[in-house]
Design goal:
The protein is α/β, with parallel strands linked by helices. The protein has helices at about 80, 120-125, 150-160, 190, 215-225, and strands spanning about 5-15, 20-30, 40-45, 50-55, 65-70, 90-95, 110-115, 135-145, 165-170, 185, 210-215, 230-235. The chain has a 6-stranded antiparallel sheet with strand order 4-3-6-1-2-5. It is globular. It has 2 domains: about 5-95, Elongation Factor Tu (Ef-tu), domain 3 (Beta Barrel); about 110-235, Nucleotide-binding domain of ferredoxin-NADP reductase (FNR) module (Rossmann fold, 3-Layer(aba) Sandwich), CATH 3.40.50. About 35% of the residues are buried.
Length: about 240
Amino acid sequence: MEKNKRFTTGKIVKRENITHDLWKIWLKVEDEFNFDPGQYCTIGYQGIERPYSIASSPDEELLELFIELVPEPDGVLTPLLFNLFEGEIVTVRKRAKGLFKFQESFKNQIMLTTVTGVAPIVSMMRTMNFNSSDYNIWIYEGASFISEFGYKEELENISKNYSNIKFIPTCSRPDDPKNNNWDGKTGRVNEIFSGIFEDIEGANKDNTIIYACGHPEMVTDISQKYSEKYSFIEEKFWTP
């Protein structure tokens, strides 16, 4: 039987619940699956397909995804994926897509994300040669609740070990009882990061790029305010 040229399958071999509506899954893809850090894969179940940014690096054996549940009727595929556990099979389009990739020509790299929007940044960080100090990197991740920081420990460890990489998580609802233990930055990620330009001498379109990935309103706000002054690359999340 001839193999499908466009599709392969992925078996869920591991699942980790982060909150009541956020979870990670690891897929063992049947056929070879190549991608660049920052790109997305197209996952399907029962004939419904949606793109999901990849958190794993291309060197890892499993494909790692960080997914947020959007309930029906707005959510179409995520309610189905939410009910899948180890051993279940999904379809995977063989070709990864997306232009949201690490831009090597910029000294200053400012990365702004919200919740699951951190996934492509995680992929980039897992793939980088950290022995290189060619870049100054700031990773800002915003969330309403501190439990939504799915890669906080991993990114904090990178930030501690490499002086040219800084990870700044920020909580937009610090007064909520669920965030009682939070002692970090507070506010929306698109509002608090702007102070970074005080630390970058001569920031311009040639040496500074801003990445924005996640909530469409955040991405649009950043684009409108900064894309004319600095280089800019975005990834808005589609309807789930």
